[in-house]
Design a protein that fits this description.
Blueprint: H1 5-25, E1 31-35, E2 47-50, E3 53-57, H2 61-76, H3 84-97, H4 102-113, H5 119-132, H6 137-161, H7 168-200, H8 205-218, H9 223-239, H10 244-268, H11 288-292, H12 298-331, H13 336-359, H14 429-441, H15 446-463
Parallel strand pairs: 1-3
Antiparallel strand pairs: 2-3
Helix pairs in contact: 1-2, 2-3, 3-4, 3-5, 5-6, 6-7, 6-8, 7-8, 8-10, 9-10, 10-12, 10-13, 12-13, 13-15, 14-15
Length: 467
């Protein structure tokens, strides 16, 4: 083993070069790790590359990490010059061993800004670092910075296309298409990176927060992406029933979809001449004659249809989420996360129903049947006594709820949601009490009983007392 300072320098420089060469030989490396090895053996390289896995023998880390760390600090203090290629290699080695070293990420930001690195390469490096350090906050922060650079490029090209000049128009169109395709690929890759990190570290708050950020900035208003995420997350939460962060992400998706569906009519009737159906209580005077004759203009009819489809799709979301939660609570008793999620879903439904009825109060006749009944918390669809349900909308406690993996219908697709289709049943206060009673009657798990009683108390003290 090397002992003198000169020998250590030679050793470390060789190891850094071996790591760089490993990435050149195999650009598809998908995981890194440290191989337990207390001392060097057989005078061989400590860098091991097997298929797509890169390993570093542990004996060399105590030499390698201080060396690249000091090299980088000397460069930042302007005491030692390094060219761009050497900086890229040193920061790569350092971040694979210690991804929370902020200075290294800042150096790579400078390399990106001057064009020495491309964003995809930095995202790839962060992805590898997260395979060993899935909770590294600095890595997630840097990923968001890189993604912002990509979004700025797309935005700049979009602005330039508004003022085309001759032959530059086609070039800008081609570049814009390439950037759009890159953005779609990046979005898909980020979802995969977040999912892998969440599986490697339970309740990985950093990974789930990053996933939310990605959707908010790269898929804002894209209902299909949110629907696909909600559907794909069903299997994940079913396999991680104690992961609070995963269920919080699902709650975010549900809330965003409900908000988007509730705003659908407003987008259809946002122009001044079409605002009559969006705000009936403040309709312009010239719409009064049409309403008095029981007729709607074409724009108003389209707005009513959009609002009805949005309400039906929202009810479908609530219905599927409650069924999923009920099935998981019965299948995995004693998990507080599931009861907390059910509480959030019901609270979201309760407030959505009240706001929906208040907003559309003057158009009662066009409301879905499940929102027009004497009991404001009990949908009519539940009162029609389908198989397995009582006359008060309560499902028998011993009957398991089916988990449907299909994604909710898109309210913008009139072929999938046609007029006259009976909306699904949504959560109702009597049915919730019936569900809790069924759990308590057949419960022999002490934690399950405690969570059920706490949920029942929450229904009685918070929901039941609200107007």
């Amino acid at each position: 083993m090397a002992e003198s300072e000169e020998e250590v320098d030679v050793l470390v420089q060789r190891v850094v070069k071996d790591i760089t060469n490993a990435f050149k030989r195999n650009p598809n490396i998908d995981e890194i790790g440290v191989i337990p090895c207390p001392e060097a053996r057989y005078n061989r390289s400590p860098i091991v590359l097997v298929e797509n896995k890169l390993g570093v023998e542990s004996w060399c880390v105590k030499f390698l990490l201080p060396y690249v760390h000091n090299k980088l600090l000397l460069y930042r203090q302007r005491k030692h010059w390094l060219d761009r290629e050497a900086l890229a290699d040193i920061t790569c080695t350092l971040l694979l061993l210690n991804p929370d070293f902020t200075t290294a990420w800042n150096v790579r930001k400078e390399l990106l800004q001057c064009g020495a690195l491309n964003p995809e390469k930095d995202l790839y490096l962060g992805k590898l670092a997260l395979t060993k350090f899935p909770k590294s906050p600095e890595t997630w922060i840097h990923r968001r910075w890189v993604l912002q650079q990509i979004l700025r490029q797309v935005s700049a090209v979009s602005r330039s296309r508004k003022h085309p000049q001759g032959d530059a128009e086609q070039a800008d169109a081609d570049r814009s298409q390439r950037l759009s395709d890159q953005l779609a690929r990046t979005l898909h890759q980020e979802m995969k990176v977040c999912s892998d990190a969440a599986c490697r570290y339970p309740s990985n708050y950093n990974a789930w927060s990053h996933r939310i950020w990605v959707l908010q900035h790269m898929a804002e208003g894209n209902v299909k992406v949110f629907h696909d995420e909600l559907s794909s997350m069903r299997l994940w939460v079913s396999m991680h029933v104690s992961d609070h962060s995963g269920f919080h992400y699902r709650q975010f998706l549900l809330k965003e979809l409900i908000t988007e569906l509730s705003q659908t009519p407003a987008s259809t009737t946002s122009s001044p001449q079409h605002r009559g159906s969006a705000a009936p209580s403040s309709s312009p005077p010239h719409h009064g004659h049409d309403r008095a004759n029981g007729e709607l203009s074409g724009a108003e009819a389209a707005g009513e249809e959009e609002r009805r489809l949005g309400s039906t799709a929202a009810l479908q979301l609530f219905h599927q989420e409650v069924e999923l939660c009920s099935d998981l609570i019965r299948s995995f008793p004693g998990h507080e996360t599931l009861w907390s999620h059910r509480r959030h879903v019901y609270y979201l439904w309760h407030h959505w129903r009240r706001e929906h009825q208040h907003r559309c109060g003057s158009n009662r006749g066009s409301e879905p049947d499940c929102l027009n009944n004497g009991d404001p918390g009990l949908p009519k669809a539940c009162a029609q006594s389908p198989a397995g349900e009582g006359v008060n909308g309560q499902r028998h406690a011993g009957e398991a709820m089916e988990v449907d993996g299909a994604s909710p219908p898109d309210p913008r697709d009139s072929k999938r949601l046609k007029r006259g289709v009976q909306p699904p049943s949504a959560p109702a206060l009597p049915s919730e009490h019936g569900f809790v009673s069924g759990i308590l009657d057949g419960c022999c798990h002490p934690e399950q009983r405690r969570f059920a009683l706490a949920y029942k108390k929450w229904l009685d003290t918070v929901i039941d007392q609200q107007p």
